[in-house]
Amino acid sequence: MAMKTTRKQNYPEWYQNVVSEADMAENSVSPGCMVMKAWGYGLWERIQRVLDDKIKETGHENYYFPMFIPLSFFQKEADHVDGFAKEMAVVTHSRLVNEEGKLKPSSPLEEPLIVRPTSETIIADSFAKWVNSYRDLPILLNQWANVVRWEMRPRLFLRTREFLWQEGHTVHASMQEAEAETVKMLEVYRDFAENALAMPVLVGRKPEHEKFPGAIDTYCIEAMMQDGKALQAGTSHFLGQNFAKSANIKFVNQNNELEYAYTTSWGVSTRLIGGTIMCHADDDGMVVPPHIAPYQVVIVPIIKKPEDTEKVMSYIENLQQRLRAQTAFGEKLRFKIDTRDKASVDKVWEWLRKGAPMVCEIGPRDVDNSGLMVKERIYLNSPEGKKIMPADEFVTTVGRRLEDLQKQMLAKARSRLEANIRTDITTPEAFADYFAHSNEWIEDGKQGKVAFVRGKWCGDTATEEILKAMKITIRCIPFDQSGTTGPCLLTGKDATLDVIYARSY
RNA sequence: CGGAGUGUAGCUCAGCCUGGUAGAGCGCUACGUUCGGGACGUAGAAGUCGCUGGUCCGAAUCCAGUCACUCCGACCA
User: How far is CA A445 from CA A9, A305, A378, in A?
Assistant: First the structure.
């Protein structure tokens, strides 16, 4: 066990340990913000690369909008959208003056600027300018950006004041087309979470009280963490004509009539990294899915005597040439040779704690045998996790092996998800009993811990209070509905909607 | 924004009650032995004890004020 705290002992503390031991990020001196370090930011770069390709494949183009949004833009929306979040960074001054050695804000702005918490309003304003005719539609854009929400209880990757994300914004001529777009992008997220992050998710619609304010419908992907809590990993909103009306996005349709357009928005953030950690990491540290690993293979030279240096390094150099030609997941293999002046055992364990999918050790013995030793992260504690093999075999199989390891990670996470959705709870009493316990680590292969319940919900607004008191949320209304009728798990009234109940991050 | 707690070496912390030369472990540096499942020995560098003021011959330690951070709640597009 490399972690000071195991998942079983204290799950939240274990999470913090993984982030710091894997050297992914640390708290910044700037409160509530984080410094993403090479290994953590490298994951984000991989997420960006893979997802950006998919966003472009589906016809979107990247734009960039300002980080500062005039207060009046939020005013427009606040007039008709209730429950608007108030935690925002507000820029009120434009310079600093030195008053007796103390710097003080000066020159108040005529209109305060809000540091974007999300960009619907400012993008809608541009849409209004750009859209005149049905021939201008649709506009399909995306932006990679930082956003700020003044969170009071930050946690690395899961909730920080500043975070990085991607926000797609589209505008369409018809409701059907906008709705289709919303669902299409949700599917892109589902596919990405499962295939790139090896994180299986449930897809569905948010209940009324969990919707994005201003949306007609909010759809989401929900993942299950190893403590049975849910993590909203991505959202996609059908905004109807709400934003079009407040920003005045109108166009002339094919019948020569003036009409409000239909908009959507959808996003995922650096929170996905927190999800990946809580989905895959173990008591030895991080476990990175090979598809998004900044380095899929790390080679650590084992040199005991200085006179072996040249022998080992030229062997590795030769291997490097051959690895450069290899591919995994349809991309060039990403590998690193760790030549730092440190004890090789320490280097090996450092990379295993970081979750590099494969770590190769190469010493004089391997040179003599034309071989190498490879350790696979997900099998760290089993005998088959350490293999001595011919270098030829390694080079020719590494790509396929990484793809295979990725599949195994997904399969493991999927079986945990499926085994921990209770569907046999049908009364409010049984439901209350189930959630009477707090969440804890779902040990691999075990069942019966607190996680998700799939059951009936009557939809009454009064149920919001019951959920709040129980600290439980409705994660989503899954797309696949049974259509049966039964007692609501909160009120006991007749209900037909199937929903997913869980505690959440 | 409520409730509690903590600020001492890069990190984790002891010392404070009962005032008297600034401590430990880890990390770091050098040398040697090591190196393939997480090393060891020897030597060394490193701190305005959060900040300001007060009491005192003397303050990390006592008193007052102040700032910051952490945890638990509330909040969370």
Answer: 18, 45, 15
User: CA(A288)–C1'(B38) in Å?
Assistant: 20
Q: What is the dihedral of CA A113, A119, A125, A131, to 10 degrees?
A: 160
How many Å apart are A471 CA and B22 C1'? Answer: 49
Report DSSP state, residue A155.
B
Average pLDDT of the residues in A440-457: 87
Positions of strand B less than 7 angstroms from a protein CB: 1, 34-39, 68-77
pTM: 0.95
Residues A475-486 pLDDT 10s:
999 999 999 999
CA atoms of A109 and A201, how far apart (whole Å) = 45
Nucleotide nearest to A352 (CA to C1'): B38
- For the stretch A3-17, pLDDT in tens is 888 888 888 888 888
Nearest nt to the CA of A210 via C1' is: B77
Q: What is the pLDDT of residues A78-87, one digit of tens each?
A: 665 655 566 8
Angstrom CA distances, A144 to A52, A66, A167, A339, A448, stand at 9, 12, 7, 34, 40
| Tokens read off for A47 | 């997420």
Between CA A166 and C1' B40 the distance (Å) reads: 50
Domains, chain A, ranges and CATH? 11-280 (3.30.930.10), 295-407 (3.40.50.800), 423-502 (3.30.110.30)
Residues in chain A: 505
User: Stated in angstroms, how far is A221 CA from B15 C1'?
Assistant: 52
Contact A28, A161 (CB under 8 A): no
Place of tokens 């399909």: A140
